[in-house]
Design brief:
Length: 154
């Protein structure tokens, strides 16, 4: 068993990777409800799990043309105000992870590995472009899950 390299885990939108990504994040959270009472002793708060939620994000370099999903496509998805399908998974062409990964992205972008990762519907809640003087231009996209995040099994 080997450690998974961050370069092998990707965020896919509509079945394609987000182009020129430098970092992806998947976060799962649980709201808690206080259940403290006179019977719980009075020294420590007690809680139970309430609603679950999840978010995802991607940090990317800006490019004129990206294989996979780029800023312009994400912009169009955001203003459409409709959920998109997201998958957080290993890249599908890597059989032995980083050791066998292709040197360059294939035409159309990376695709997710079958029967791997987590998937769900998500809304684009933030799309930010950053252009610092003398540095690479970047963009960041934030997603909020709509409903359940599930393990990919097929």
């Amino acid at each position: 068993m080997s450690v998974i390299k961050g370069s092998d885990l990707m965020l896919f939108v509509g079945g394609k990777s987000i182009g020129f990504a430098t970092s992806h994040t998947l976060s799962i959270s649980a709201d808690t409800k206080e259940t403290s009472s006179k019977d719980s002793g009075g020294k420590w708060q007690t809680s139970e799990v309430g609603v679950l939620s999840w978010t995802a994000s991607s940090e990317n370099l800006c490019a004129d043309k990206a294989e996979g999903v780029g800023y312009d496509e994400l912009f169009a998805m955001m203003i459409a105000r409709k959920p998109v399908t997201g998958v957080f998974a290993l890249e599908g062409n890597s059989t032995d992870l980083a050791e066998n990964k292709l040197d360059a992205v294939k035409t159309g972008g990376w695709t997710p590995k079958a029967k791997d990762g987590y998937t769900g519907q998500m809304l684009i809640t933030s799309l930010e472009k950053n252009a610092p003087n003398g540095e690479n231009a970047t963009f960041t996209v934030q997603f909020t899950g709509v409903g359940a995040l599930t393990k990919v099994t097929q």
